[in-house]
Write a structure and sequence with these properties.
about 10% strand, about 375 residues, about 50% helix, 6 strands, alpha+beta, single chain, 2 domains, six-stranded antiparallel sheet
Length: about 375
C-alpha cells in the first residue's frame, strides 16, 4: 500500500508507480480520468508521469473517443502494444498520447461498489510492454488505483449524505433546486479548468472543487424557516442572521468531522468554499471582509459559478436571464464583487456551460437562451 505520507491522489499514484518500478521499469505514466455520465464528459484527475503529461487540464465527451466508449460498453481492459498502428488516425485523445511519444498502453475501466468512476491508463514509451508477464501486475495496480479513488469519493459522499439527512431531519428545504447544485458544481469545474494553467491548479484540485461546490450553502440548514423562505426582502436584522450561514456551515462540518471514524480528504478546501463564497473581491462581502487574492481560489471560483446559475435560473422573485445578459451583469461587477480573472474564465466556458444547461434543466424549464458568443 502507498505510504501514509502520500496525502494527495497524485502522491498516491506516484507511490503506486514507484512500487511497480522493479517489475515494470519501462512504465512511464499512470493516469486517471473520471467520467460524468450526466454530461457524457471525461475529465482528467491525476497522473504520475516521468515527463510532461499530454492530457493535463483536459476534458472531452466520451462520444468523441470511440475506443473508450467501446471499452466502457465491454468492460475492458484494452491493450494496445503498438499505438501508432492502432490509433494513428484516431481521436484527439489518441493523437495527444501518440504525439507525446507513448507507444503502448493498458487501459481499464475504473469501478467502485458497482459504479463506474472512469478510466485508468498505463503507458510506456516502448511498444510491446504490456505482454503476458506484465498483465497480472497492471491488473493488480488498476484495482489498487480504483480502491484509492473510491475511498476518496466514498468519504465525500458520506459527508454529503449526512448533510442531506440532516436537512430532512430538521425538515429544512433549501429553496434552491438539486439541479442548481448539479449545474453550479459543473460550472465551477469548467471555470477552474480554464484557470488551471495560469494559476497552477492541478486536475485533482479542479475535481475537488467540483465535488465540494454543492455544499457551499449547507449553513442555510441552520437558518430559521421564516427567514429562509421569506418571499419579500429581508430587513436589516434578518440579513444579519442570514449572513451567519457561512460560519454556521463550517460549524456543521466540524461537528461531522468530530464524529467521523476516518478523516475526510481535502477538508480545508471544503471549509474555504463554505466560509468564503460570499466574500467580494473589493472587500465588501462577508463574513470576514477579505479582499482580492486573500479570498481562497476555490471560493472565488464557486462564487462566480453559483451567481451565474442563479441569474440564469427561474426564481420566485425573478425571471430567468439568458446567458448573455447574465454574463454582461457579472462583467460589470468584475473587480468589485467578482474576481476579474474568474469572469474571463466564465466567458471562455460559455459553450461548455450551455451544454451543461441543456443536459441538466430544472423541472419544466425552457432552454436558458443564447450564449454571449451565439
Amino acid at each position: 500500500m502507498p505510504p501514509p505520507s502520500a496525502q494527495t491522489l497524485t502522491e498516491r499514484l506516484e507511490a503506486i508507480h514507484g512500487l511497480l518500478s522493479d517489475k515494470l521499469p519501462r512504465l512511464a505514466r499512470i493516469a486517471v480520468a473520471l467520467y460524468d455520465a450526466n454530461t457524457d464528459m471525461l475529465h482528467t484527475l491525476a497522473h504520475s508521469s516521468r515527463g510532461e503529461d499530454p492530457l493535463s487540464h483536459y476534458g472531452i465527451a466520451l462520444s468523441e473517443v470511440p475506443s473508450l466508449r467501446e471499452l466502457l460498453r465491454q468492460g475492458g481492459p484494452r491493450i494496445a502494444n503498438d499505438l501508432e498502428a492502432a490509433y494513428f488516425h484516431g481521436s484527439e485523445h489518441s493523437r495527444r498520447i501518440i504525439g507525446q511519444g507513448y507507444r503502448s498502453s493498458y487501459t481499464a475501466v475504473l469501478s467502485h461498489r458497482d459504479a463506474v468512476l472512469g478510466f485508468v491508463f498505463f503507458n510506456s514509451y516502448e511498444a510491446g510492454q504490456f505482454d503476458e508477464r506484465a498483465l497480472p501486475i497492471v491488473e493488480c495496480a488498476a484495482r489498487l488505483v480504483a480502491l484509492t479513488i473510491g475511498e476518496d469519493l466514498d468519504a465525500t459522499r458520506i459527508l454529503m449524505g449526512a448533510i442531506v439527512a440532516l436537512g430532512k431531519v430538521a425538515r429544512v428545504r433549501d429553496p434552491e433546486t438539486g439541479e442548481h447544485l448539479e449545474r453550479m458544481a459543473r460550472f465551477s469545474r469548467e471555470i477552474a479548468l480554464r484557470l488551471a494553467e495560469p494559476w497552477g491548479l492541478t486536475d485533482e484540485f479542479v475535481e475537488n472543487v467540483f465535488l465540494y461546490a454543492p455544499l457551499h450553502d449547507i449553513g442555510k440548514l441552520a437558518m430559521p424557516d421564516a427567514i429562509l423562505f421569506k418571499p419579500e426582502g429581508l430587513d436589516p436584522g434578518e440579513w444579519e442572521i442570514m449572513r451567519q450561514h457561512p460560519a454556521r456551515g463550517c460549524e456543521i462540518v466540524q461537528i461531522m468531522l468530530d464524529n467521523a471514524a476516518a478523516p475526510f480528504p481535502h477538508i480545508e478546501l471544503l471549509r474555504h468554499i463554505i466560509r468564503h463564497h460570499h466574500e467580494c473581491f473589493d472587500g465588501s462581502g462577508y463574513p470576514d471582509g477579505l479582499t482580492g487574492c486573500d479570498i481562497p481560489v476555490e471560493a472565488r471560483i464557486v462564487a462566480v459559478a453559483d451567481s451565474f446559475d442563479a441569474l440564469t435560473s427561474l426564481r420566485p422573485y425573478k425571471d430567468r436571464w439568458d446567458n448573455a445578459r447574465a454574463l454582461a451583469w457579472m462583467q460589470a461587477h468584475a473587480g468589485s464583487r467578482f474576481d476579474p480573472e474568474c469572469i474571463v474564465a466564465l466567458e471562455r466556458s460559455l459553450p461548455a456551460i450551455a451544454r451543461i444547461q441543456d443536459a441538466i434543466r430544472d423541472p419544466d424549464a425552457v432552454p436558458p437562451g443564447p450564449t454571449a458568443d451565439a
